[in-house]
Amino acid sequence: MKKYMLAFATIFISAMSFAQIEGKWKTIDDETGKAKSYVEIFKKSDGKYYGKVAQLLIKPTDPNCTGCKDDRKGKPILGMEVIRGLSKDGNEFTGGTITDPKNGKTYKCTITKDGDKLNVRGYMGISLIGRTQTWHKVD
């Protein structure tokens, strides 16, 4: 009986952790290929996923988001919520937005997990018009 309980617990924990995006992720600069920042993704009480800049690895030209047009305008990039309102839909996290603090532009966002990597897609309109970044899990 103990073997069955242990097997059930192992399967349950594995299923719960499958396709979870919560945690700290290293972002990579598209132009230089160097690590740019750590973004911490977390789930709020509304059941949606959000991500904030936990650490800057490259000093930005401007430490504030001067290009932002919403409540983040002029706020520091460090600590800024750059991902907002993602919902889990099967193996995807979608329905939210991602903001590029470099220029303040906000895009629709879809995230899929591939092992210790996230494929983060920002796009306007339809998903075909956009770009995907690969973020790496930080231990």
UniProtKB/TrEMBL annotation:
<feature type="signal peptide">
    <location>
        <begin position="1"/>
        <end position="19"/>
    </location>
</feature>
<feature type="domain" description="DUF2147">
    <location>
        <begin position="23"/>
        <end position="137"/>
    </location>
</feature>
<dbReference type="Pfam" id="PF09917">
    <property type="entry name" value="DUF2147"/>
</dbReference>
<protein>
    <recommendedName>
        <fullName>DUF2147 domain-containing protein</fullName>
    </recommendedName>
</protein>
<dbReference type="InterPro" id="IPR019223">
    <property type="entry name" value="DUF2147"/>
</dbReference>
<keyword id="KW-0732">Signal</keyword>
